[in-house]
Write a structure and sequence with these properties.
By secondary structure, this protein is mostly helical. Helices cover 73% and strands 0% of the residues. The radius of gyration is 10 Å and the shape is globular.
């Protein structure tokens, strides 16, 4: 499933941790996932913040 959502997983994993990616994969909506992914990167969210 990770390969389907994040085909360039190597690139994303250089920026986000595997824990971030696992949390983001739970979002069913691509737009929602993209929003939170960008916020994690821009605001330097830890996984605990992302979960909230």
């Amino acid at each position: 499933m990770a390969k389907e959502i994040y085909p360039n997983c190597q690139t994303v994993s250089d920026i986000l941790t595997w824990s971030h990616i696992c949390e983001l994969m739970q979002a069913e909506d691509d737009l929602e996932r993209s929003f939170y992914e960008k916020e994690c990167i821009a605001q330097k969210w830890d996984v605990r913040t992302l979960k909230r």
